[in-house]
Amino acid sequence: MLITAPADQLLTGIPILETRCSYCKSTLGEGDPVSAYAVRYAGDEKWSIPRLYCRDCQSTITDPTLGATELLAAGHLGVTMDAATQQTALTLLGIERITKSAPEEGHATL
Q1: Is the pTM of this model over 0.85?
Q2: Which of 20, 54, 71, 83 lies in disulfide reach of 38, CB 3.0 to 4.6 Å?
Q3: Domain membership flag for residue 1
Q4: Is 85 domain-assigned?
């Protein structure tokens, strides 16, 4: 069964682990506008956000990966809190999808 959802539902709450722009290496923090590369490989249940880009270095999906669903989303960084555990995490907020690549659109990686 194919399930579709908007990018904001798919990516909300995923912790951001790398806080530097993947291109220019500038440090990014709470409130900064960013674009985020998100990926979910075939067979995986969870999305990951391995790359962030600052406003000046926004990217595109130029070489889609075969077997992966990829999204490029715009938003800003914000801190969210889990009240039950009292833990906070830097996450992507105000998410809008810029572009996507479906699993069958890509190229095989070596």
Answers
A1: no
A2: 71
A3: no
A4: yes
pLDDT one-digit tens code per residue, 18-54? 899 999 999 999 999 999 988 888 888 888 899 899 9
What 3-state DSSP class applies to 88?
strand
Establish if 30 belongs to a structural domain: yes
In a domain, 66, yes or no: yes
Structural domain count, the chain: 1
From its phi and psi, is residue 25 left (phi > 0), alpha (psi between -120 and 50) or beta? left
Which residue has 């790398």 as its token pair?
Answer: 18
- Asked whether the predicted pLDDT for residue 55 surpasses 90, the reply is no
Q: What is the pLDDT of residues 62-105, one digit of tens each?
A: 666 677 888 888 899 999 998 999 999 999 998 887 776 655 55
